[in-house]
Amino acid sequence: MAWLLVFTCKGLRCQKAANSLGNFKFFMRIGHARKLLLETDATVAETAYASGFESLSNFNRQFQQISGTSPKVFRQQNKKG
Q: Which residue among 28, 36, 56, 65 is least enclosed by CB atoms within 10 Å?
């Protein structure tokens, strides 16, 4: 069974479609990480592991591919307060 999820980044230049269960899980993990980055003071490493990534470098690379920026810069540009 194929999953379809349209993932859009608010205020960023990205739009991706997830069409398999693996991609669906990946986009859900990135979405969870984005939420943690904006709503908590967890470090980028803590965020990566809490979002299901086993490698910080892999998380940083994949986050940047999807969001167009590193997790640290994403947080600085988008966190309110």
A: 65
- Measured CA to CA, the distance from residue 24 to residue 73 in angstroms comes to 24
Exposed/middle/buried for 12, CB within 10 Å: 0-12, 13-18, 19+? middle
Token pair for 79: 């966190």
Coil vs helix vs strand at 43: coil
User: What is the chain's length?
Assistant: 81
Token pair, residue 68, equals 């167009």
Chain segment 14-42, per-residue pLDDT in tens: 444 445 666 778 888 999 999 999 999 99
CATH 2.102.10.10 is the classification of domain 5-78:
no
**Domain boundaries along the sequence of the chain:** 5-78
Q: What is the pTM of this model?
A: 0.74
